Amino acid sequence: MSLLEIRDLIKSYRTPDGEVQTVLDVPAFELGEKEHVALRGTSGTGKTTLLNCIAGILSPDSGHIELAGRDMAVLGESARDRHRADHIGYIFQTFNLLQGYTCLENVLLGMSFGPGKDRARARELLTRVGLEDRLNYRPSQLSVGQQQRVAVARALANQPQLVLADEPTGNLDPRNGREALKLIREICGETDAALLLVSHDQEVLNQFDECRDLAEINQAMREVSTT
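Above: the chain's sequence. Below: its structure in token form.
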């Protein structure tokens, strides 16, 4: 059964010289419940734009993005925010942690956009990612790998049906990258969450049974690669 279904998705930007550049042209894409899929794509191929459209952070020019029975592309901003909070966990490449808040507070703030704050679950998640002794540390007091673990805990705090991961190992060294990826996949498996990860790192992509090239589903990129 499809959790995510994309049809005829178009997203364009206007360049500084006034031209319209199409970044996404996706006729069809589906992701099933509990499915883990990696998308391969180099810089500038629309990876982050695609994830942001799925999450409702960006609005597409046209098309449909059905997630858990509702079309994100036609919802108003507040409805998109609500649906995202209820169904999506997002692991950003740059973590997007709030620097003035502790690890525990960052996870609790993520929960506040969903069902509500659950301090016991927040502590449990941070313990699960190996930060039980860093609950009251701020991001600046953590290593890069530890910050990524906070981002993982926050993304999974509301038990999402879908986890989006944008180059989640991009700022990590190889060892921490492998550990972070293993952790993401393990927790998604434990909570029955689907995972859509985008990366250019072949070592990361090799960990997935299903890996697709973004250019295969994005006609805009196919056109660029053939010109």
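The chain has a mean pLDDT of 91.
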